[in-house]
From TrEMBL:
Listed EC numbers: 5.4.99.9
Keyword field contains Nucleotidyltransferase: no
Superkingdom field: Bacteria
One of the record's GO cellular component terms: cytosol
Basic and acidic residues bias locations: 1-10
Species whose genome carries this gene: Stutzerimonas zhaodongensis
Single GO molecular function: UDP-galactopyranose mutase activity
Family statement drawn from the similarity comment of this UniProt entry: Belongs to the UDP-galactopyranose/dTDP-fucopyranose mutase family.
Top-level taxonomy: Bacteria, Pseudomonadati, Pseudomonadota, Gammaproteobacteria, Pseudomonadales
Boundaries of every UDP-galactopyranose mutase C-terminal domain copy: 175-372
Protein name per UniProt: UDP-galactopyranose mutase
InterPro entries linked to this entry: UDP-GALP_mutase (IPR004379), UDP-GalPyranose_mutase_C (IPR015899)
């Protein structure tokens, strides 16, 4: 067995003593996990705690927590480096799992959209319609009738354009969805799966929350603190600033869990899977509050960014200054969003098949499985993967049924 040379971060791995203990130490790792985001960190924690596995987690970024990474900026305000991350889920089990590593702060996200010179609630609700059209509707029936009178039925709903026009008509589609989507994805809504704009419902009541999930809460001390606890197990070693390619030939491991882009792992053998990127502009402002709610969306194509988020709404932090992030969609840069459309799904299938034929490696997470997943869905997916590993080792009697665990991952759009 080849010895492990792990530079300075894990000197005991390179030891060469003759005792049984040191030969165990030289054994290397049971699992190498690429990516310290939700997918990688949940699996590392489960494998270490649940199966006593020795795990090495590497991430090429200079921090853990993946896209959920948060930190205090120069002004002392807690911000999210990769844009606003709001935790919401309907799955009690996922809350229970994460609650081992954090306390929570209740938070219901609210979003306004700047349309026709006004800021109005999005998802579109009765208040939105009253404000935009100078109406005074008071019942859900009135709002439903109004929307029905505008909707333009589409027979075969396939795209992100179809689903909105079918629900609320072309005018509202153009005001709220067309420009935002064209900016965000660099594609017209007619070129995107219906699942994308279907994330945003339309309401006939006055509920102005962005999400209606049972659980809506933020980790009380931030995401990074939660990840620190998740990874604080003696069997888990973490190496940041480390690309998988730098260490794959240096480290001894039995199994690989890859949470980076699946096409990158296979050296783009079938061509690049398209991802959409963003540039984040973080600003610190010498004022206590910048905007009325956590996020304001800017659907107009005349504005280069899609949204501005102000973190103090999310975190509840009290501070004389405030910090905001502007999101500018970009074709180049870190891969943040898989792009849901049929040709991409086809290409992904080819990689997935290759993955199925590649022993010893499991792909997990938003990039590893090319799925537009929210955080809770990635946690569910990682727990389901863990269950399968656990059952393979201990039989189905161990823990709960894989079927149940898998159902956690099935909330995907
Ligand atoms: P990631 O967090 O992307 O982690 C993958 C990690 O792998 C990265 O840190 C990367 O550096 C590392 N990596 C990749 N390749 C390599 C390599 N070769 N070597 C070493 N390391 C590598 N979800 C919500 O539920 N609510 C929200 O409000 C929300 N808002 C979002 C806002 C934005 C702008 C974005 C982009 C996403 C948002 N999400 C939100 C989604 C959320 O970020 C993801 O669901 C979640 O972070 C995915 O976790 P992951 O572990 O799959 O991937
Ligand atoms: N969307 C839109 N207008 C909005 C908000 C959302 O057109 O004001 C569309 C857009 O295509 C966006 C998608 O709905 O990419 C999903 O929005 P969500 O807020 O869920 O995006 P995320 O937070 O994942 O970036």
């Amino acid at each position: 067995m080849r010895e492990v040379s792990l530079r300075d971060s894990n000197p005991e791995q390179a030891g060469g003593g003759a005792s049984e203990e040191s030969s165990n130490r030289r054994r290397g790792f049971d699992y190498l996990i690429v990516g310290a985001g939700f997918a990688g960190s949940v699996l590392a924690e489960r494998l270490a705690t649940g199966l006593n596995k020795r795990v090495l987690v590497v991430d090429r970024r200079p921090h853990i927590a993946g896209n959920a990474y948060d930190h205090y900026d120069e002004a002392g305000v807690l911000i999210h480096r990769y844009g606003p991350h709001i935790f919401h889920t309907n799955a009690q089990r996922i809350v229970d799992y994460l609650s081992q590593f954090t306390e929570w702060r209740p938070y219901e996200h609210r979003v306004l959209a700047q349309v026709d010179g006004q800021e109005v609630p999005i998802p579109i609700n009765m208040t939105t319609l009253n404000k935009l059209y100078g109406l005074n509707m008071t019942t859900e029936e009135q709002a439903a009738d109004f929307l029905a009178s505008r909707a333009e039925p589409v027979e075969n709903i396939q795209t992100s354009e179809d689903v909105v026009i079918n629900g609320i008509g072309r005018e509202l589609y153009q005001k709220f969805f067309r420009g935002y989507t064209r900016k965000q994805w660099g594609l017209d809504p007619s070129q995107l799966d219906k699942s994308v704009t279907s994330r945003i419902p339309t309401r006939t009541n006055t509920d102005d929350r962005y999400f209606t999930d049972t659980f809506q809460q933020m980790p009380k001390y931030g995401y990074t603190k939660m990840f620190e606890k998740m990874l604080a197990h003696p069997n888990i070693k973490v190496m940041i600033n480390t690309d998988y390619r730098e260490i794959r030939d240096e480290v001894q491991f039995d199994h690989l869990i890859f949470c980076g882009p699946i096409d990158e792992y296979f050296d783009y053998r079938f061509g690049k899977l398209p991802y959409r990127s963003l540039k984040f502009e973080h600003k610190q402002l010498d004022q206590e509050q910048f905007q009325a709610v956590g996020t304001v969306n800017y659907p107009s194509e005349d504005v280069p960014y899609t949204r501005i988020s102000e973190y103090k709404h999310l975190t509840g932090q009290v501070h004389p200054k405030t910090s905001v992030t502007y999101e500018y969609p970009a074709a180049e840069g870190d891969p943040y969003y898989p792009i849901p459309r049929p040709e991409n799904a086809e290409l992904y299938k080819r990689y997935q098949q290759l993955a199925d034929e590649t022993p010893g490696v499991t792909f997990v997470g938003r990039l590893g499985t090319y799925k537009y997943y929210n955080m809770d869905q990635v946690v569910g997916q990682a727990l389901a993967v863990y269950k399968r590993i656990e059952e393979a080792e201990q039989g189905p009697a161990a823990g709960e049924s894989a079927e149940h665990a898998r159902s956690l991952a099935d909330q995907a759009p």
